[in-house]
């Protein structure tokens, strides 16, 4: 499959919990933002092993680098909804 999926923090939480709803997306290329990376690694009471697993999962995905244009586009999209 050649699909791409822009995953938010909740999607990664479901993935890490092996939620069956994500099975269809496992063959997709996952893309995430720097915000998701921060949120995943800063949850309360996170254990070092959990951080290690999160980092390993994220290395298999593509991170979107933040630029101000992303903010502007996001604001425009959200205002249209």
Note the topology:
Layout: E1 4-6, H1 9-16, E2 29-33, H2 34-41, H3 48-59, E3 62-64, H4 68-80
Parallel strand pairs: 1-2, 2-3
Structure keywords:
single chain, 81 residues, alpha/beta, 3-stranded parallel β-sheet, 4 helices
In short:
With 81 residues, the protein is of the alpha/beta class.
Give start-end ranges of low-pLDDT stretches.
Answer: none
How many domains? The number is 1
Shape annotation = globular
How much helical structure, as a percent, in the residues? 40-55%
Explain this structure.
- This protein has 81 residues and is α/β, with parallel strands linked by helices.
- It has one domain.
- Helix content is 51%, strand content 14%.
- It contains 4 helices and 3 strands.
- It has helices spanning 9-16, 34-41, 48-59, 68-80, and strands at 4-6, 29-33, 62-64.
- A 3-stranded parallel sheet has the order 1-2-3.
- Strand 1 (4-6), helix 1 (9-16) and strand 2 (29-33) form a beta-alpha-beta unit.
- It is globular.
């Amino acid at each position: 499959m050649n699909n791409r999926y822009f995953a938010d923090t909740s999607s990664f939480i479901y993935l890490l919990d092996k939620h069956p709803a994500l099975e269809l997306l496992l063959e997709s290329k996952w893309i995430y933002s720097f915000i998701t990376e921060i949120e995943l690694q800063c949850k309360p009471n996170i254990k070092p092993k959990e951080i290690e697993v999160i980092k390993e999962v994220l290395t298999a995905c593509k991170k979107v680098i933040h630029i101000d244009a992303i903010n502007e586009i996001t604001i425009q999209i959200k205002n249209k909804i």
